[in-house]
Design a protein that fits this description.
The protein is of the alpha+beta class. It has 6 helices and 9 strands.
Length: about 240
Amino acid sequence: MINPSKQDLIPQITIDCVIFGYESRQLKVLIPKLDFNGDFWALPSGFVQQNDDIDIAAQKILQFRTGIENLYLEQFRVFGKVARNHAAFLDRLIELNSDRLSPVESSKEDYDWFTKRFIAIGYYALVDIGKVQPQKSSIDQTIEWHPVEELPTMILDHQEIVELALKTLRRDLDEKLNAFNLLPDTFTMKEVQEVYETISARPFLRTNFQKKILDLDVLERLEKKFTGAANKAPYLYRFKYR
């Protein structure tokens, strides 16, 4: 970002987003790699305009990164330790990229703006990975899905943010019934069980799980899914409140 100190931003506040997707029985996180020398990986993040609500600012970041409007979003934690600042990260980035940064990008005013203590508001989002069109920012080299168990080493405390987002997602599963946001519009009961097992990192007994989900009365049963196999075709379902 060029000249952040000259823009109408709330200083020392960021929004850091953990975007979860689900594919092939893996829970994944969408992570950009910054387009600088060195391995700098970071969560999709952004600043807050003076005239934006916090939730609106988060929605803008997530819509830009995924191409999806009105996705499922939860604010889960504020990160604000005294030692939380960008100085060590920014010094290392400048050291490795001194020949690439323009005087504006490395000006003292902007350096001072970036290296003050920042408070980050953490959000997690749940998306149908098949609908996402990952979008790089102007400072990204790549943006890709990574299995939650195989994340690259990230800057600042972004690893901790992912870990706490996952812990919160697991805690929210039964209360908020939000796992359905990771599935396509229609799905089988087996696919529901698989996404629950993947998030929870443990198996469930099929008959008990199916009864539990159906008793919630949040699914609409549709036609059977034709597979061409000789075995009984499973029913398709749709989440009523998506």
